[in-house]
Automatic annotation (TrEMBL):
This is ABC transporter domain-containing protein. Belongs to the ABC transporter superfamily. It comes from Egicoccus halophilus. It holds the Pfam family ABC_tran. GO terms for molecular function: ATP binding; ATP hydrolysis activity. Keywords: Transport. Residues 32-85 form the ABC transporter domain.
Length: 225
């Protein structure tokens, strides 16, 4: 427990115990001083609920209690299975900020989750698994940038005229709510086409795919294993 802390079922606590009792039972089992129990409850913001029975806890409070148990041994590595599952937006933000803080301290945090957009906001690196096999392992930024391909998004004061100019330059152009998505030419060529057409640009940036799109492409729509 001093090296690795884990949450496999963050809500599987004894409903009749008080929070402090639940933590002490686990601490006693691995020889951790009771003083640490108060520390981890404070760490996850449950100090005021220490003497409240777990059966009366909300789902978010139970998840916090699970994290407190995982932190008992002050581990360098944490393994968490669906830590934000079923939480309201406030609870999800708390989990994200808490885990990000642990990572910033130099700890390694592994999170298994089906909430792909939340993973994108939290993780530095991702491992995508399909049918029990790792299909890719890479930084989030690298995956999303690569999935965007050699495409750019451009917005102008006259998208219709710019669209015509880009097509004339051999580009593949798709109009969308954020502007034009352009493939087949690079950013410099987009700028040249706009200049030749007399169109002022408001935005020009590489296309960046969403992590969810990357996941669906890599797994063929399969669920996370």
């Amino acid at each position: 427990m001093g090296t690795v802390g884990a949450i496999v079922d963050g809500v599987g606590h004894h409903p009749g115990r008080k929070a402090i009792e639940e933590v002490r039972v686990n601490a006693r089992a691995v020889g951790i001083p009771f003083a640490r129990c108060d520390e981890v409850l404070e760490l996850v913001g449950l100090e005021a609920a220490a003497h409240k029975r777990v059966g009366a806890f909300s789902l978010g409070m139970r998840q916090r209690l699970g994290i407190a148990l995982a932190m008992l041994g002050d581990p360098k590595v944490l393994l968490l299975d669906e830590p934000a599952n079923g939480l309201d937006p406030q609870g999800i933000v708390w989990v994200r900020q808490f885990l990000r803080g642990l990572a910033d301290e130099g700890r390694t945090v592994f999170v298994s989750s089906h909430l792909i957009n939340e993973v994108a906001r939290l993780a530095d690196d991702v491992i995508v698994i399909r049918q029990g096999r790792i299909v890719t392992e890479a930084p989030v930024a690298q995956l999303t940038a690569a999935a965007g391909g050699a495409a750019v998004v451009v917005a102008s004061r006259d998208d219709r005229r710019l669209h015509e100019a880009l097509v004339a330059h051999g580009a593949e152009v798709v109009a969308g709510p954020e502007g034009l998505t352009v493939r087949g030419v690079d950013a410099d060529q987009v700028g040249d086409a706009a200049l030749a057409a007399g169109v002022a640009l408001r935005e020009l940036r590489p296309l960046k795919a969403e992590l969810e799109d990357v996941f669906m492409e890599l797994t063929g729509g399969s669920e996370i294993a």
